[in-house]
Amino acid sequence: MDELAVAWTALSHLESQERILQEKLTDVHRSIELQRGRIENIMRSRPSLITTFPTELLLQIFELIVQDESLTNNIHPKLQLTMVSRYWRDVILTCSSFWTRIQLAPEWPLPLLEAHITRSGQCPLDIVILNWNSNSSKTVCKTFRQQLGIVIQHASRWRSLEIQANAGTLYALFALEKVYGMAFPSLTRVSVDRQRRHGAIDHGWGPLFRFLRFESIPGLKGLNLGDLIPSEDLHVSSTLTEFTLSVSYPSRLEAPSFLYNPSLRGLKSLTLQGWTKSWQLVPDSIHLPLLEHFVCEVSNPKQLLHALSAPKLTHFQYQEGDERPSTVFSGLKSKFSNVHHFTLSIADKWSRDPGGAQSLCLAIPAVRSAVLNEGDLEAFFGLWGMSCAADVWEHLESLSVEGSYCDLPNIRNCLVWWLGRRQRLQKGKPKLKIRFDFLDDISTLQDSYGCGSPLSFCAAMREYCDLEYGQACHGSH
Q1: What is the Cα–Cα distance from 468 to 55, expressed in whole angstroms?
Q2: Could you tell me which of 209, 203, 293 has the C-alpha nearest to residue 252?
Q3: Less Cβ around it within 10 Å: N or C end of the chain?
Q4: What does the pLDDT look like over 118-137, one tens digit per residue?
């Protein structure tokens, strides 16, 4: 066979292979399309991930979105959420508990309020009055009366009532007058903040205190009053267990007689904040036999702490006032001997008043967990004379250190030294757990902080304690 015939034969063979491969490729393309179709059918037949999310968890996420105004520019974020998917829409529209928070506000049209009432079913309602301020136009007043009239019809379902500081005094008092004499069998929490008006005390809040009487709210458990000091004859339900009072303005009140009210004997949690300079209290005159949690953030805490008798107090949070710590806690030795959890916040006098930390520790000698500021460590763990203030805390198990900067030399000079001393004096005890809330990782600190060697600091600390970093939830406080 000559050369040309060989070439033609080779070409014919290659063309034959090309046809075969093209047929195979066509078959592959056809199979690919069929497989894609099968996959799409399977995917369409299966529920999407957005519909398989647990309903309970989805509702918790929705609640966070609705409560966080920064996540939406719409004042009614529920409407936005219903547009995501049919499943979300069904969950939102059919879940009664998602519609229980009702706002009486100018921004809420009546149809929206009525929709909340209807969709909430028979669930308890949380009523919030806000954003009316001093707007007294006829249209605005009419809107408020209409909104109030709707929710009053369901007074038996009210679970909580919150009157915010921007609600407007006239509107708040009008609402309280309208509900006077009514019964609220399901109402358990009331929170009322009053705007300070020209620095004067407004004595026109009698309707509030009449509303709070046990005849109207027999199941009241939590009460929060902002700049509204109740009178001695206020008799709330004996079911009250949590009470918060804030006083942001000076007053001539010499004796907060409401603290002697028998209605408060069942309190388990008490928070007092603000201006108390004029208060005149007799030692051991405020008897709260069931009190477990006490937050003291007043300007003049000495008389209050000396007057308080709380044998079951276990959690104590203290914010420094105008008085020196040594003055406040002097004479309170072992008075609060059942306090196991202590938090010290916003303090700057302790380093200048060494006796204050000593007096405090003697007043609460059984502390097991403490939260202190980095700048106050020297006052508690530094050597003053022959001892350290924290030596009294023989049962201390954990310490959280808060702050905004790090001064490792200061911590090392007092805390590491005290830990070593504690280990020698209290042999056999487990290591103290210490957390630095203001640091993610000490090993990342640079020398520019003036901290010395972070690694050597860590090594010294871990020899005597279990060391942790970062924010923790102080649930026990």
Answers
A1: 36
A2: 203
A3: N
A4: 999 999 999 999 888 766 78
CA separation for the pair 315, 338 (Å, rounded): 9
Strands 398-402, 432-436: pairing kind: parallel
In the structure encoding, which two tokens stand for residue 81, read together?
């959420």
Q: Which two tokens stand for residue 307?
A: 């007057």
Task: Give the model's confidence band at 175: pLDDT under 50 very low, under 70 low, under 90 confident, else very high.
Answer: very high
CA 342 to chain centre: 18
Between CA 311 and CA 287 the distance in angstroms is 9
- 315 C-beta neighbours (distance < 10 Å), count: 18
* Structure-block tokens of residue 418: 């005290």
The one-letter amino acid at 197: R
* Amino acid symbol at 429: K
Q: How many CA atoms lie within 13 A of 59 on its CB side?
A: 14
Give which of 284, 282, 292, 327 is closest to 308, Cα–Cα: 284
Q: Which amino acid is at 190?
A: V
Which residue from 190, 132, 130, 180 is spatially nearest to 158, judged by alpha carbons? 190
pLDDT digit string, tens, across residues 59-101: 888 888 877 755 544 557 787 888 888 888 888 888 898 899 9
Output the 3-class SS for the chain: CCHHHHHHHHHHHHHHHHHHHHHHHHHHHHHHHHHHHHHHHHHHHCCCHHHHCCHHHHHHHHHHHHHCHHHCCCCCHHHHHHCCCHHHHHHHHHCHHHHCEEEECCCCCHHHHHHHHHHCCCCCEEEEECCCCCCCCHHHHHHHHHHHHHHHCCHHHEEEEEECHHHCHHHHHHHHHHCCCCCCCCCCEEEEECCCECCECCCCCHHHHHHCCCCCCCCCCEEEEECCCCCCCCCCCCCCCEEEEEECCCCCCCCCHHHHCHHHCCCCEEEEEECCCCCCCCCCCEECCCCCEEEEEECCHHHHHHHEECCCCCEEEEECCCCCHHHHHCCCCCCCCCCCEEEEECCCCHHHCHHHHHHHHHHCCCCCEEEEEHHHHHHHHCCECCECHHHHCCCCCEEEEECCCCCHHHHHHHHHHHHHHHHHHCCCCCCEEEEECCCCCHHHCCHHHCCCCHHHHHHHHHCCEEEEECCCCCCCC
Amino acid at 37: G
Structure tokens at 83: 């547009």
Report d(CA 121, CA 100) in Å as an integer.
9
Q: What is the pLDDT of residues 303-323, one digit of tens each?
A: 999 999 999 999 999 998 888
